[in-house]
Amino acid sequence: MDGQSLDITAAKMAQLRAILPEVFSEDKIDFARLKDILGEGSLVFNEHYELSWAGKTESRRELQKQTTATLMPDKKNSVNFSTTGNIFIEGENLEVLRVLQKSYFGQVKMIYIDPPYNTGNDSFVYPDDYAERQVDYNKRTGTTNGEGYLNKQDLWRKNTRENGQFHSVWLSMMYPRLYLARNLLREDGVIFVSCDDNEQANLKQLMDEIFGEENFVGEFIWHTRQNVDSRSLTGASIDHEYILCYSKSTNTRIQGRQINKNKYSNPDNDNRGPWMSSPMDGVATKDRRPNLHYTIVDSTTGMCYDPSPDTGWRFQRSTVEQLIAENRILWPKNPKSKPRFKRYLNDLSSEFTGFSTILDVDYTAQATQELRQIMGMETLKFPKPLSLLKVLIQQGVNGEETPLILDFFAGSGTTAQAVLELNEEDGGHRQFICVQMPEYLDKNSESYKTGYRTIADICQARIQKVIAKLQTERSTRLELNGDLQPLGFQAFRLAPSNFKTWRGDVQGEESILQQLESFRHSEKEQSEAENMLYELLLKTGFPLTAKVESTEIEGQTVYTVEDGEMLVIFDDYTPVINAYVHQQKPQKVVCLDRIFKGNDEAITNFKLKLEEVGIKLTII
Q1: What domain count does the chain have?
Q2: 314: exposed, middle or buried (C-beta count within 10 Å: 0-12, 13-18, 19+)?
Q3: Strands 216-223 and 358-359
Q4: Considering the entire predicted model, what is its pTM?
């Protein structure tokens, strides 16, 4: 009891919902829809089928935003930083997806994500008021720090069912992320997205819009629990989740289930090679397919065989006569049995058959045990099992040599562990990029008391522990394949740009002069060379795993990217540096304006000489 009198409005709304549930959208009356149902609506032309929600227009604008953010290397938490192709990124995933656009556009073979299911207890990043300007939002919510950078962690908030736009908020969160994710997929790439009944219908329509209905591959059903839920208020125990799969283009397919070749043999030395016995039964009754109901006669023995009345034969009479002529019929010794036919291994058009959308993998309980075993304690709830991710990866990458797999809702890091273990099992060289926001852990949790502070900490620690486990297992094996995956990962953190951004809103002569003075150096104070280097890699289109070498020349450092494709210079420009650049003949040179110490003539001469030999110069 809340001590309040009857809420008349709520009571009337409940009565109206009982009579006309179709006029309600997110617990609000759609009056235009109500008028249509009552025959009082105005005629609407050019209607078309689409998924619409409150905030869709602004979520489209959200995906068009650009960012100056970068990724800062975190070598302390990395493993074998310089020799691995695997990447872990700590940061808000929408901003990270923006950062990755230039370097990884069209480079990812497979994406798997396990986003918030919108159960009413989930927290995720979403703007709660699209109408206000970003600067006002920042001031109101206190989401900027002393330097004016967004504290993205503060945007992580719960979306409860009491929210008047419960589904809309979730869709607005997912739309720009899925759209930018599609940009990163290769033309033959696929994406798998986990969900449950809360948003399955909306997610299907959303992905139809972003990826195209024609690129829908399938909706997989995963049996998540072994025992039924007897506490269900509806009496229905929800024991499954969904995984929607879409391709980037229509000519892409998943791998399928590999045919078991062990079923084929050649006991009679048939010169057509190994074969297997297959039944001749069909699928139709005589009234449906009369041409499949006839008597087959063994001319050698004179024995007659009639089909089952419910199924008929698999083939029509002319086809069976051809199989008899080719000696492909297996005649039974028992007159009550039916003939079978030889199916040859050489006749297979593919080594794979269709892959069932009913997934035969472990339950959530096994996944919890797997995470507990690797971490040594209880950490996160409801992780995905390794067997599920391994199956999806095997289907999504089609046995390629070095495919790139992205998970930008990495959670506890199941995707990373699945990639590493699969590579050890089959000698593959799959690589992952895992992105996880540093969402704070409950201070009363065992993992927090152990020293972890965020989900990103747990994800990163799990990858480290898996690599250590695999290294130990390698040391105990007597024989090792010489082409094993390089064990390790590069850790990065989302960070503000190392370079200053010109503010167009500055007004007044004095303020403009102050800004000009501050731009004597383009980089911010305390920006480190390595951090600037990786920002330039990203913003010039190189991957984070690009080969980088540093060369010392008379105390000056020059960075060489991908064996000379690009040179990066942060130290002073000297005649020796000039000579080295011309000797290396890179495709492009990137340097800071300050290395010329205000000598405009040196800048002009350097640029002209590089242009003469076809080298592009970028000065920051």
Answers
A1: 4
A2: middle
A3: parallel
A4: 0.81
